[in-house]
Design goal:
The protein has 216 residues and is mainly α. The chain has helices spanning 3-6, 40-58, 69-83, 87-90, 96-113, 122-129, 134-153, 161-182, 190-196, 200-204; strands spanning 9-14, 17-22, 26-28, 31-33. The protein folds into two domains: 1-37, no CATH class; 40-215, no CATH class. Helices cover 56% and strands 8% of the residues. The chain has a two-stranded antiparallel ribbon. A two-stranded antiparallel ribbon has the order 3-4.
């Protein structure tokens, strides 16, 4: 750790505003900051918060009965929004440890979405739920933010709706392609990954179709 990170107070400048961050860090706009900008504290607190949210939703999403697939995917989106809040800021700090902090709650909510057993792996649950891994989506959000900043810095006018839609589609394709590459060597669920990879984009973008726990 450098001397700057060991200082009691570190000064950071952003658009002319100085933010003093103490040794114990601070909470700013929903993000946990510390003197080293590694966001370790952020992910340490984010993981339990996401698990608590998933646990609350579990009472509404039983395997037998309960809401249909559309509602389940809506709840997945709610937890995803909480998880990816501020992603363009903390994305560069996505270490292996921080990725693990995201995977655990993502697996929990994905299992509920597919009405799966608790033993279903994260890779399989996310594939069957059609939910890309959150660290991949965080990278896409960071890239989109950089794209918008680049337009602003060049003094170009704000992009129209067509350009924004094209950018979102491009980002979506990039996420699905990166996800497909990861499924070449999954840590678990090899057969499921092999079966789903050829139709991953179609399955993730589907508007119908559902799974039940009997299919596991």
């Amino acid at each position: 750790m450098s001397h700057k990170c060991r200082k009691a107070v570190s000064d950071f400048f952003y658009i002319g505003v100085r933010v003093e961050v103490g040794v114990t860090g601070l909470r700013y706009l929903g993000l946990e900051l510390d003197g080293c900008w590694n966001f370790r504290a952020h992910f340490e607190k984010l993981g339990p918060r996401l698990m608590a949210t998933a646990g609350s939703l579990s009472r509404l999403l039983p395997n037998v009965g309960g809401p249909d697939t559309v509602v389940r995917r809506l709840y997945v989106g709610v937890v995803r929004s909480i998880a990816l809040y501020g992603a363009p800021v903390w994305c560069p700090a996505l270490t292996r440890r921080n990725v693990v902090a995201l995977r655990r709650p993502q697996r929990a909510i994905a299992v509920m979405a597919i009405r799966g057993y608790r033993t279903v792996s994260c890779e399989v649950a996310c594939v069957l739920a059609g939910t890309p891994l959150w660290d991949l989506e965080a990278e896409a959000l960071a890239a989109d933010y950089a794209w918008r900043c680049n337009l602003r810095d060049r003094g170009e006018p704000r992009s129209g709706e067509r350009a924004l839609r094209a950018r979102r589609l491009q980002s979506r394709r990039s996420v699905l392609e990166a996800w497909s590459r990861r499924l070449v060597n999954p840590s678990a669920g090899l057969r499921t990954a092999e079966a789903m990879r050829p139709v991953l984009a179609e399955w993730a973008n589907r508007n119908q179709g559902h799974l039940t726990f009997r299919q596991f």
